[in-house]
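Response to reviewer comment R2.3. The reviewers asked that we include at least one raw input/output pair. We reproduce the pair for Succinylglutamate desuccinylase here without editing.
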Amino acid sequence: MTQSTAPTHLRIHQFAGLKPGPRLLVSAAVHGNEVAGVGAIERVMRLLDEGSLTLLQGALTMIPIVNPLAHRLKRREGDRNLNRNLRPTPIPQDFEDRIANQLCPWLAASDVLLDLHSFNNPGPAFAMLGPRDNNGDLEPFRHQAAESALALAVGTGRIVEGWLSTYALGLKRRADKASDGTRRMALQQDPHYGVGTTEYMRSQGGYGITLECGQHEDPNGPEVAFNAILRTLMLLGMVAAGSAGVQAADPKRPVELLQLYEVIDREHADDRFERPWASFDAVAEGERIGTRADGTPVLAPAGGRIVFPNSKAEPGNEWFYLAKPSDRALT
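Raw output as returned:
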């Protein structure tokens, strides 16, 4: 697609309550083929427009299609992965840089983010939350309690933590490799490459979660996304409890909390999985997950679960993650 035929604007909608309150940003299609949240956002906007849903306070910003180029092409990326190395760029080099220059100020102007995604392999919806409160260098944070409450409120039976710290391990390995001189490799070796929407949000003083609404084609994904939007609005006091027929998630439901601890890149196009994996399949210590192109086995270093296995990953990109039970207390 030539630059002249690429989308030339980002569609953003805002509903401003007449009383002060939280500033919530809801986004979808950061990856263009992850569309569960697109229709859900449109549905919420229709309810607000027709008066079936009433905004009691605060400001609700909604971006149904964050990456219109990737969405038009019906694929994950336009020129590159928008949800990596997300930050303003004085001299944009690609379409995603231009989107980031528009998106980042809206993130910085918000208090809370609900970012709606989906994934390749079959599996149930789950929420991803950020770090615990800390003053460290990687991702200092002070909204652990509020973000944990948000992750619980959207209603999934599984919550995952540890994204950026795990991603940093992969970045360190990539940095030790020789660059091929391409911009893609330079971005992948950049220390900021693990920063996406929620990480940028936290860097600007807010908090937020990523909600993975299930597999891309899961017919229940749009309903998961819609319920999550309404539950987030209810949690923040921006709409009345039970609005649009959506009830708060059961706070006593069983929730599995996992912590990512390892990311493994695909190194060669002939690297292959031992079997078709789905997110959160159990793996035993020493179990063979895959085989490198040269025949070297890829073994699980410990028992746990595999997350985001991607048999179509490009060499140099994430092939799969590993997770273990977390000792974090959410309440």
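The first helix runs from residue 36 to 50. Helices lie at 36-50, 68-73, 95-108, 144-153, 163-175, 183-188, 197-203, 221-235. Further pairs are available on request from the corresponding author.
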